Amino acid sequence: MSAEQETRAVRCLVAKVGLDGHDRGAHVIARAFRDAGFEVVYSGLHRAPEEIVQAAVQEDVDVLGISILSGAHNTLVPKVIEGLKEYDAFEDTLILVGGIIPDDDEDDLKELGVAEVFGPGTPMEETIEFIRNNLPERA
Question: Could you tell me which residue ranges the B12-binding domain spans (predicted)?
Fold first, then answer.
């Protein structure tokens, strides 16, 4: 963790991208992140990849957690990653995906730059610990 990250709370965007209408898990993880001392912004439902990118850049987040259950992860997550790269925000953002992701797709997402994929039932402490241990250094 950099000196700046030690003096300010870790900033997280919990994002619901696409047409997925189920957000209970996103609310649960957002609350767990807040309880862990993270600063959390929630995107709300039905956000386009471009909206997620804009929110991540404007909020200067350290962590982008994408919650997706619709099965459109192979289409939507790459668009978010491309957008972050366009704004030079990719290297400074730890990208996590939560949801029901097949193992083969999980590997593909990681090759694109997703740091980790968390499935249903992952203990909150595991996700929080992963974030604390893997935050990118901020410029």
Answer: 9-138
CATH numeric code, 3-134: 3.40.50.280
Listed by start position, the domains of the chain span 3-134
Among 87, 36, 35, CA closest to 61: 87
pLDDT in tens, the chain (139 residues): 455 545 689 999 999 998 887 888 899 999 999 999 999 999 999 999 999 999 999 999 999 999 998 889 999 999 999 999 999 999 999 999 999 899 899 999 999 999 999 999 999 999 999 999 999 886 5
Q: What is the CA radius of gyration of the chain?
A: 14
User: Which residues are bridge partners to 117 per DSSP?
Assistant: 97
To which H or E segment does residue 9 belong? Answer: none
Provide the whole-model pTM: 0.92
Cα torsion angle, 75, 128, 27, 104, sign: positive
- Cβ atoms 49, 66 nearer than 8 A: no
The DSSP letter of residue 50 is: H
Cβ–Cβ under 8 Å, residues 57 and 11: no
Strand partners, 99: 68
